[in-house]
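Subject: design request, 203 residues
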């Protein structure tokens, strides 16, 4: 109706949009999340470029997740893509944590790993190599409760904290990385790599 050839899909519609898509790529079908739509005549095809973009960003940073443990925060379409690709890249263990126990359990049922209720994290000390924030929250202003929780969060052996958001002047994920002397990456490189894949599909 708007005469668009193609489109991107962002929070919070990556899962909801699937019911409006005619055909899904194999990756989008497995992940259950779409961030790229290609229009071929009257046919809309949905793709997920987040997983491969995340993998490309890790490769560019020289970080290999094989055999390492990971914690993914979030239960939306981005989290689904990240948990899928981490398991595909042979991460030794993946913990998934979010506010919604049903959605967290669904991700674990689909891709493997272990679900941890979000507010149980402050009572645990986990040996985690990589922490990935796939929620929309990074700044204390966006969620004082989350910021407070992760100020008290204890992790061991962490060498990378990756926040899929970017552009926050105050970022409690960056603070978490500093406290644990870990590398910090924001989501700009993941966005660039997934956008490159999207542009290739469009053109």
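Subject: RE: design request

Done. Sequence follows.
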């Amino acid at each position: 109706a708007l005469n668009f050839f193609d489109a991107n899909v962002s929070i919070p519609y990556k899962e909801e949009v699937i019911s409006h898509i005619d055909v899904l790529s194999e990756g989008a079908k497995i992940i259950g999340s779409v961030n790229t739509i290609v229009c071929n005549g009257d046919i809309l095809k949905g793709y997920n470029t987040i997983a491969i973009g995340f993998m490309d960003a890790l490769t560019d940073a020289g970080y290999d997740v094989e055999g390492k443990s990971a914690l993914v925060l979030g239960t939306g379409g981005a989290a689904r893509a990240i948990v899928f690709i981490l398991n595909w890249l042979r991460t030794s263990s993946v913990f998934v944590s979010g506010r919604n126990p049903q959605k967290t359990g669904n991700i674990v049922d689909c891709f493997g790993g272990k679900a941890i209720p979000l507010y149980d994290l402050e009572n645990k000390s986990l040996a985690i190599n990589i922490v990935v924030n796939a929620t929309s929250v990074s700044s204390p202003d966006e969620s004082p409760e989350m910021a407070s929780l992760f100020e008290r969060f204890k992790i061991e052996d962490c060498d990378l904290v990756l926040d899929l958001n970017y552009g926050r002047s105050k970022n409690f994920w960056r603070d978490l990385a500093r406290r644990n002397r870990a590398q910090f990456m924001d989501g700009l490189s993941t966005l660039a790599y997934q956008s490159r894949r999207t542009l290739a599909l469009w053109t």
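The CA atoms of residues 111 and 158 lie 23 Å apart.
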